[in-house]
Design goal:
Length: 740
């Protein structure tokens, strides 16, 4: 993070490497560690006390583990085999113990000689390998090991009390090899330049950075570890918040065209024709957005809200305000199904106000066009013409909007729906189509805890819609344990029939499509419980389940399928039939996860629910209960009651609070992908900071960072902080933050 010349030294060089060339190569390829500074910031994940042995009873199957244990006995066996037919084959069996359990190690062939000499009864060592089962017993085959021996002058007490750092490792690079490499470069830690302003560091009683690096890698006491972590957490939080504060500061300097709606224009006409009143939450968020739109620098606002809280209505009113002020608005949707759905619902809500230039259109009307990749050439040409002439005030589309051919007359507002599904470059390309930077409104239906929003979207102002519109019904959710209680599953299909008999409709969601392009193994790997799915059947598929239901428990009902590989026109036709009530049951993949709005659908059955994440289940559930009849969501699973997957499903069934569920989701997944691949395409920047546990640090760091940037935007008086920023924000990440 805070690299200076000594810390920028490459671990691997053509002529002279800091480490051995083989070690440096593995570190670069498997751990992403290229410099001395990278290695010093590869912190231990935990510490073992030499005197306290690891619990062997808790070893996970098929995982690469490191254990500290003592040799109980070692036996060398000879045997006959195809390679050694005269009984000259050798097998060394070593039993190790930690007081709570025993584990067998096994070595074969020429590999027995060294361990036979090293691993004598009473020897204590660290062992690393993959846990497997042989003869119904856990074992490590050919584990790597490192003997733990104290120096002659070291007392037994201090030896037993020493803390052994265990590092995030791979099968190619064991923890103790990383530890040895760290010890080699640890003297360079004294050259680390401190990124924290001295007044801030001293005021909060934090260690200097060189001392923190020494204590995290070579602690003498647990207090050393706590002090070092407290300091390093502040580094991560503060440097990141400074980057975001500088982004906000720079955005505030950009020019933008203020967009103020006319009091008697399109927005006023739209509000007059609304058949319901807006919620207080919608009115409050709209006021925040209109204030931003009226400013002479670009709005950057994140609108997050519960499923069904009316975000689309708020976004539409913002778009109408911009059209009123002479500009154009573009809404970017992640899928064609969603783009078509938005186009349909927006034109329906606007009525004659969406018929600009057409017979019967209102005097205030504008044109609302759809632009997707699968449109016919003639319709596409007309849509492009309407945009470049300004005839169309609102365009709704997929990533097709980003193509070079798409030109706007005066793009004033970009609305991005379901932000987490769009790459930064895509959003940036659309924003670049304005003559001056357009205003930006990002919407997400996945509620984000405040600290995550501050960490990931720290350059956006945040508005929250947490109130459901009047007429929305509560959704009851239940877990259906299909393996333990098959009659519960039979009852689930009965409930679907009962809802259809009342004139309602149902969704059945499956994890995969089921055509020949599907790969069940890949689907299993994607599962949140991939470690537990190795011996499970493939995930249920739409094409299989639809047929089984139509011939079995839902016989006689009108069942249709919907999935992402259908032709766009076919998908649209299926959605239109379902919306019109011509289909009773829609068997679909997660293509219905966002934006699909059919108020008459009251029940959803999610098959293999354990294969979906918490946020995804919450999103899916939001497709029912959108009308006046109560909604029902049934989470079907075959996972046993004690499993983590069942606990996750129980949590989803227990609350409709998306913010609470997003906290649970994050605590279970940790935040490896908060700033990692999911956001910036790079390895996670968070090593010791945990965004849920360290809420206070993040909030305080944001305040401190905002004050520092306000006083010195270029950080000219803080060279150490500049160095840390340069290291945190390599070119890719800098662009990521800039594009927001």
């Amino acid at each position: 993070m805070d690299l200076v010349p000594a810390l920028q030294e490459p671990l691997r060089r053509p002529l002279k490497s800091v480490l051995g060339p083989a070690t440096a190569k593995v570190m670069a390829e498997h751990l992403g560690l290229h410099t001395v500074g990278d290695l010093l910031h590869h912190y231990p994940r935990k510490y073992e006390e030499r005197g306290r042995l690891t619990h062997l009873a808790d070893l996970p199957m098929d995982e690469h583990v490191t254990v500290v244990a003592q040799v109980a006995d070692a036996r060398l066996h000879t045997f006959a085999s195809s390679r050694a037919p005269r009984g000259k084959g050798q097998r060394l069996e070593v039993t190790i113990t930690d007081g709570s359990g025993r584990l067998q190690l096994v070595f074969f062939g020429n590999g027995v000689h060294k361990p036979h000499k090293d691993l004598l009864p009473g020897t204590r060592a660290m062992f690393a390998g993959k846990v497997s089962v042989f003869n119904r017993k856990l074992q490590l085959a050919h584990p790597a090991y490192e003997l733990l021996q104290g120096d002659d002058g070291e007392s037994v007490e201090s030896f037993a009390g020493a803390l052994i750092p265990l590092y995030p490792a791979t099968a190619k690079m064991e923890s103790w090899k990383i530890a040895k490499a760290v010890q080699t470069v640890l003297p360079d830690a004294r050259d680390a330049v401190d990124p924290l302003p001295e007044a801030l560091r001293a005021g909060r009683g934090l260690l200097p950075l060189p001392e923190a690096l020494l204590k995290i890698h070579r602690p003498h006491t647990k207090a050393d570890i706590a002090d070092a972590q407290a300091r390093l957490k502040w580094d991560e939080a503060f440097v990141l918040q400074v980057a975001l504060a500088r982004r906000r500061h720079a955005d505030a300097q950009l020019p933008a065209v203020p967009r103020v709606p006319r009091p008697d224009g399109l927005l006023a006409a739209f509000d007059d024709r609304l058949p319901f009143t807006l919620t207080e939450g919608q009115r409050k968020v709209s006021r925040e957005i209109f204030t931003d739109l009226a400013a002479d620098h670009p709005m950057h606002r994140l609108l997050q809200g519960e499923v069904g809280s009316g975000k689309t209505m708020v976004a539409l009113r913002a778009m109408l305000a911009v059209v009123d002020a002479g500009g154009q608005a573009a809404m970017l949707a992640p899928t064609e199904v969603l783009a078509q759905q938005h186009h349909r619902s927006i034109t329906e809500m606007m009525g004659e106000l969406a018929e600009g230039g057409m017979l019967g259109g209102s005097e205030h009307a504008t044109k609302v066009v759809l632009l997707t990749g699968s449109m016919g050439a003639a319709a596409r040409r007309q849509a492009l013409l309407d945009l470049v002439t300004g005839e169309a005030g609102i365009v709704i589309g997929t990533h097709a909007l980003i193509e070079d051919k798409v030109q706007f007359h005066d793009l004033g507002l970009v609305v991005v729906d379901e932000q987490h599904r769009f790459g930064v470059e895509q959003r940036d390309a659309l924003r670049g189509k304005g003559k001056q930077p357009p205003h930006l409104l990002v919407m997400t239906a996945t509620p984000i805890p405040r600290t995550v929003a501050m960490t990931v979207f720290g350059d956006l102002e945040t508005s929250v819609l947490d109130q459901l519109p009047a007429g929305r019904s509560p959704i009851a959710s239940h877990v259906v344990p299909a393996a333990d209680k098959p009659h519960f599953l039979a009852r689930a299909w009965e409930r679907v029939r009962e809802e259809v008999a009342k004139g309602h409709q149902a969704y059945v969601v499956c994890p995969r499509i089921g055509d020949e392009e599907d790969d069940p193994k890949k689907a299993a790997k994607k599962s949140p419980d991939a470690d537990a799915t190795a011996d499970r059947r493939p995930p249920l598929a739409v094409l299989d389940v639809a047929g089984q239901l139509a011939e079995g428990p839902l016989q006689g009902l009108r069942v249709e399928v919907l999935h992402g590989r259908m032709a766009p026109d076919d998908k649209d036709a299926v959605m239109r039939r379902f919306a019109a009530g011509d289909t009773d049951v829609l068997v679909a993949t997660t293509v219905i996860e966002v934006g699909v709005n059919v108020p008459n659908a009251t029940v959803m059955v999610i098959t293999d629910a354990d294969r979906f994440g918490v946020s995804q289940l919450h999103q899916l559930r939001g497709r029912v209960g959108r009308g006046s009849a109560p909604g029902l969501c049934l989470l079907v699973t075959e996972m046993p009651e004690a499993s983590a997957a069942r606990q996750r499903l129980n949590a989803v069934a227990a609350t409709l609070d998306g913010f609470e569920l997003s906290r649970i989701d994050l605590e279970q997944r940790r935040e490896g992908d908060v700033l990692g691949q999911a956001q910036s395409g790079a390895r996670s920047s968070l090593r010791v900071l945990a965004v849920i546990e360290d809420e206070e640090i993040i909030a305080e760091a944001r305040e401190e960072a905002t004050a520092v940037v306000a006083a010195d935007p270029e950080l000219t008086g803080l060279p150490g902080l500049r160095t840390a920023l340069d290291a945190l924000l390599d070119d890719d990440k800098e662009q990521y933050l800039e594009k927001g």
